């Protein structure tokens, strides 16, 4: 008969929000719990025990009852200071996050958090410094690198499929309804700068780790932001002024580990209608081949299989360019990306080691967003300096 598994108690803050509930509770922690935890290399098991935290007592209680979670609270500070709590997870509003993470680490708690970790680079660097000094294991959600499409894309990079990489292009976004006739799919604070909203602040921290994780270091940024939809309606059906950018168009200079220069371009918009296979897609072009990856699917085209189109605007195109690409197989069972990173992070806690995607990586994401906004304001390309603690 096996020994009793070790239990890691996880305080989950902001669990009533869309991401906190769907991806972190429903698709990550609860499946781990319901499977009886996970098994370590030595055969021992680790179980998780969530504690739900939110400001709306009725919502938190309802979620706890619905999912059989024994503990819940509206008092974040009390839970942080509970000596039986091992991990504090945060998926609350960006404007509140830095203070929560700081308190948690100073209380000796391991932390796992959504992005951005802070509203300013100075705050993000301070968090990284506190994390190093406190000795806790700190993890920051880098979910997109765990998605099947990007896992396949990275594998092609590692195998040298592209030859010398020339460029990477990304298209992300969809139409977020204004809220007057049809309800919005995203919370209203996302469109208020004073509440920490904004496409650049939200997504450039993602794009930094995606570009780093697939290509290499981001060396410079040139961004143009826009508030395409100036008025929206909130959760109470009240019209409000959108003070944050709802679209951001970025050009990045990248450097591969081999020292090659790569051009990156990513368009991000909540005011775009989708004409592509997935809500986000990345295309890498190289001397020996190209590939396009979404959340799940990845297709590729080798140099030898590349067609030779001829430009003739007077004749309709008769060949199907999409049919000339070959799908890249997964060659493995790939679980939910959030769940995979949670398990990796929890294993790092048990082993007493750093998580590979920590607060310094998050600080570089905040830096890219901050410099992207500065680039827009000053209408120029800005070089990205190294961060030192």
TrEMBL record:
One of its GO terms (molecular function) is glucose-fructose oxidoreductase activity. Pfam families: GFO_IDH_MocA, GFO_IDH_MocA_C3. Residues 152-291 form the GFO/IDH/MocA-like oxidoreductase domain. The keyword Oxidoreductase applies. It is an enzyme of class 1 (oxidoreductase). Keywords: NAD, Oxidoreductase. This is GLUCOSE-FRUCTOSE OXIDOREDUCTASE. It comes from Arthrobacter rhombi. The lineage of its organism: Bacteria, Bacillati, Actinomycetota, Actinomycetes, Micrococcales.
């Amino acid at each position: 008969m096996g020994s009793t598994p070790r239990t890691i108690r996880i305080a989950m803050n902001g669990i009533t929000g869309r991401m906190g509930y769907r991806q972190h509770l429903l698709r990550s922690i609860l499946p781990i719990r319901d499977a009886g935890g996970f098994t370590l290399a030595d055969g021992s098991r680790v179980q998780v025990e969530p504690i739900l935290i939110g400001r709306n007592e009725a919502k938190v209680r309802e979620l706890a009852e619905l999912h059989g979670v024994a503990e819940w609270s509206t008092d974040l500070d009390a839970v942080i200071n509970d000596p039986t709590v091992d991990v504090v997870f945060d998926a609350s509003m960006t404007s509140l996050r830095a203070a929560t993470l700081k308190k948690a680490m100073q209380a000796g708690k391991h932390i796992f958090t959504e992005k951005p970790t802070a509203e300013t680079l100075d705050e993000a660097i301070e968090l990284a410094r506190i994390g190093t000094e406190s000795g806790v294991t700190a993890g920051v959600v880098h979910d997109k690198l765990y998605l099947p499409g990007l896992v396949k894309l990275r594998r092609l990079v590692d195998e040298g499929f592209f030859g010398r990489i020339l460029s990477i292009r990304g298209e992300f976004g969809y139409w977020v309804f204004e809220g007057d006739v049809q309800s919005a799919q995203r919370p209203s604070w996302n469109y208020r700068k004073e509440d920490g909203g904004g496409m650049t602040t939200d997504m450039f921290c993602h794009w930094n780790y995606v570009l780093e994780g697939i290509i290499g270091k981001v060396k410079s940024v040139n961004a143009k932001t826009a508030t395409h939809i100036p008025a929206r309606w909130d959760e109470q059906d009240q019209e409000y002024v959108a003070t944050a950018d709802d679209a951001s168009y970025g050009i990045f200079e990248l450097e591969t580990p081999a020292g090659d220069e790569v051009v990156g371009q990513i368009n991000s918009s909540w005011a775009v209608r989708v004409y592509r296979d997935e809500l986000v897609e990345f295309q890498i072009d190289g001397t020996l081949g190209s590939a396009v990856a979404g959340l799940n699917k990845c297709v590729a085209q080798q140099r030898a299989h590349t067609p030779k189109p001829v430009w003739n605007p007077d004749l309709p195109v008769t060949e199907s360019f999409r049919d000339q690409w070959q799908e890249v197989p997964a060659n493995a069972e790939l679980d939910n990306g959030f769940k995979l990173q949670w398990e990796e992070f929890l294993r790092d806690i048990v082993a007493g080691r750093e998580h590979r995607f920590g607060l310094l990586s998050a600080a570089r994401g905040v830096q890219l967003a901050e410099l992207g906004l500065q680039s827009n304001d000053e209408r120029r390309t800005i070089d990205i300096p190294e961060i030192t603690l």
